Amino acid sequence: MLYKFKSPAAGDLIMLEPNGRRVLEVIGKDAGPQGIILAADMGAAISALEQAVAQEDADHKAAVALAESKGEVAPKQDAVSLRQRALPFIEMLKRCSTAGKDMVWGV
C-alpha cells in the first residue's frame, strides 16, 4: 500500500506504507487508508516529528557511545533514518500551514 498525501498548497507526496504509517503515528493520527491533517494542527505535527527525529538521533548516539565504552562495534543506524523520511513530510506540512490549507490522504 502507498500513502499519497495531497494538498492544494504543495505537490503530492507518496510514501510506502511502513514509512507513512510511522510518520502518521508520530503525529498522533490514525494511519488508516484515509485521513486529514487540519491546517490548525500542523504546528503540533511538525513539532512532534522534529522531536521524534531528535530522539532517534540521541538514541543512536547513546547506543554508539555505550558500545564504544564497552569496546564493542558500534551499531549502525537504519539505512534511511526517520530524519530523511520525515523531511519531505515536514516541508509539506510547513507549506500547508503557511497557506492555511489542509492535507489529506487516501481521497
Structure description:
- It is a single chain.
- This protein is α+β, with helices and mostly antiparallel strands and 107 residues long.
- It has helices at 17-26, 42-69, 82-99, and strands at residues 2-7, 10-16, 35-37, 103-105.
- The chain has one domain (2-105).
- A hairpin with a 2-residue loop joins strand 1 and strand 2 (10-16).
- Helix 2 runs antiparallel to helix 3.
- The longest helix is centred in the middle third of the chain and has 28 residues, at 42-69.
- It is elongated, with a radius of gyration of 16 Å.
Which parts are unreliable, with pLDDT below 50 for 5 consecutive residues or more? none
Question: How many β strands by DSSP?
Answer: 4
Main beta-sheet strand count, sense and barrel state: 4 strands, antiparallel
Nearest-integer average pLDDT = 94
Q: SSE string, helix = H, strand = E?
A: EEHEHHE
Topology:
Elements: E1 2-7, E2 10-16, H1 17-26, E3 35-37, H2 42-69, H3 82-99, E4 103-105
Antiparallel strand pairs: 1-2, 1-4, 3-4
Helix pairs in contact: 2-3
Notable traits:
107 residues, alpha+beta
